[in-house]
Write a structure and sequence with these properties.
By secondary structure, the chain is mostly beta strands. The chain is 11% helix and 34% strand. It is elongated and about 60 Å long.
Length: 94
């Protein structure tokens, strides 16, 4: 799906609808000290054999998440399209 690079959206800081620039949201790396990760490492030690969590079937597509930045004040917030899709592209609407 083609998504415009700029949208008009509500800015909480400006308290008005202003132009926002969109860019794709990319999650950071997972935490090495999270409980599940530590549990996995602990279970793999010794002669206990291979240990992994039970496999859960993931959905093939996700709801696209963007970061919207206000062109006036520079405040950022999430912008999520509430439909599942495999691919999104940011396109110019000029």
């Amino acid at each position: 799906m083609n998504v415009p690079k700029e949208i008009k959206d509500y800015c909480v800081k400006c308290n008005a609808h202003t132009q926002h620039k969109l860019k794709h949201f990319k999650p950071g790396s997972p935490r090495a000290l999270a409980e599940g990760q530590r549990k996995n490492v602990r279970k793999k030690k010794g002669y206990k054999g291979k240990y992994q969590f039970t496999a859960t079937i993931k959905k093939q597509n996700k709801k696209p998440t963007f970061i919207a930045e206000c062109s006036d004040c520079g405040a950022k917030h999430y912008f999520v399209i509430p439909k599942r899709m495999k691919k999104t592209e940011l396109k110019d609407t000029s």
